[in-house]
Amino acid sequence: MKQIAFQYPFLVFHKCRCTQQVPIEKVKVKAAGEEAVLSWEVTCTCCGEHISASFPLQGGSTTDLSHVVNVYKIIPAIKDELVIMRLESFKARLKQGNIFFYGDYRQLRLFDNVIESGVLPVDFVDLTRPYALLASQ
Fold this sequence. Notes:
Blueprint: E1 2-5, E2 10-15, E3 21-23, E4 27-32, E5 35-43, E6 50-58, E7 62-64, E8 69-76, E9 82-86, E10 91-95, E11 98-109, E12 114-122, E13 125-126, H1 130-135
Antiparallel strand pairs: 1-4, 1-13, 2-3, 2-8, 4-5, 5-6, 7-10, 8-9, 10-11, 11-12
């Protein structure tokens, strides 16, 4: 079993029943051939509820996690400002034994007032690899 983490510029939150968003620090991945299981455990800081979630992934099929997860991308802007872009959907896919995360987005570009949309891959770090320990410091 390996663990992965989503790092800057992505923030991943689990939706709690009390309408609070709880950050997901680590995701456990249990892979076996063309199948895998994503799971995580978090505790809500507002209501104290312990939340555990588990999602099976099948090879070649896409699993939509949008109903339990919110994903944001932080984009640095001019003059110490931030642009926070929320992904409208968040999906996981198992392809040839590798897991890929991606989401649909739509944002207003401030410099020309055009609505931009597309698919954005969400990067992660494998915490079970030796180089990941150096990156987290």
